[in-house]
Design a protein that fits this description.
Helix content is about 30%, strand content about 30%. With about 180 residues, the protein is of the alpha/beta class. Strand 7 and strand 8 form a beta hairpin. The chain is globular, with a radius of gyration of 15 Å.
């Protein structure tokens, strides 16, 4: 972890697993940009394609009230639970082990609203970006002031607009890029 109550505490990853955790440097940039726009304290997050859970756990570390980790891989969902247990996080999260599109429909039906949504599909799963952004733009999950951040490769652009979601900022760092969206 970079900051907050879990600062300098390492997370577990699975050696050889097809996970690409958000780098510490890119995660630090992400949280610096978010903290400049909104207070992270008390926010509700969606961490889609959560992998090791590093982004959502960083949000908890910095004061998020609730994080929904969504991960289709059983091995990765187990890893997220292990990382949360390692840090002795007992509340303020839910790990949803299911495909992201199924989880989003479930969260929408339950009336879950998020302040910040982070999505980081495998870079090769380009269709996942459009699917998620289109669904979010038309769902009740997003509040008028919600932020949606997509991490992607610099060799792929998920687009400037997805229905009501408009990209307002794009930050490149190495091969990773963060695209920031808001409802327009």
């Amino acid at each position: 972890m970079i900051a907050g109550k879990f600062r300098s505490r390492p997370l577990r990853s699975v050696r050889g697993a097809p996970l690409r955790p958000t780098s510490d440097r890119l995660r630090e940039t992400l949280f610096n940009v978010i903290a400049a726009a909104v207070s992270i304290e008390g926010t509700v997050w969606l961490d889609l394609f959560a992998g090791t859970g590093a982004v959502g756990i960083e949000a908890i570390s910095r004061g998020a009230r609730q994080v929904y980790f969504v991960e289709e891989s059983a091995e990765a969902a187990r890893l997220i639970r292990q990382n949360l247990a390692l840090l002795e996080v007992e509340a303020g999260f839910e790990v949803l082990h299911r495909p992201v599109n199924v989880a989003l429909r479930k969260l929408d039906a339950q009336g879950i609203r998020c302040d910040i949504c982070f999505l980081d599909p495998p870079y090769s799963a380009r269709k996942s970006y459009a699917d998620c952004l289109e669904f979010l733009s038309q769902s009740r999950i997003l509040l008028p002031q919600s932020l949606v951040i997509a991490e992607h490769s610099r060799h792929f652009d998920p687009g400037e607009r997805h229905a009501t979601l408009l990209r307002y900022r794009k930050l490149e760092q190495g091969d990773g890029v963060l695209s920031f969206y808001k409802r327009g």
